[in-house]
Amino acid sequence: MGKIYAGTSGWAYASWKPDFYPRKLAAAKFLGYYATRLNSVELNYTFRRFPTEKLLAGWIAQTPPGFKFAVKAHQNITHIKRLRGAEQFTADFLAALRPLQEEDKLGPVLFQLPRF
User: Fold this and answer.
1) Which of 21, 35, 45, 66 has a CA-to-CA distance to 100 between 20 and 30 Å?
2) Is residue 1 part of a domain?
3) Count of the separate structural domains present in the chain
4) Based on C-alpha coordinates, what's the Rg of the chain?
């Protein structure tokens, strides 16, 4: 059996204080703290924007070896183009994720589709 990954849809929720995050933990430290408790997280950010290398480098630096990011595919692929004629955009999107792949932090890419 392979490794099991557990996570949530995002981590940047101030409302998780004090039940999950310590009351005085700064929001900039949420991901690092989160990664001490769970070993994966879904990136909703990527549904609307391509992540920059700098942004990914920051997320990579805050997470330990073995941590995985489940990346939500961009809405242009799934909701606007509805998978039709999206080959180049998809290739560009996946290329933007290369830093995660290079650091062995890329988990599944989630193509969340609208109702057809």
Assistant:
1) 21
2) no
3) 1
4) 15
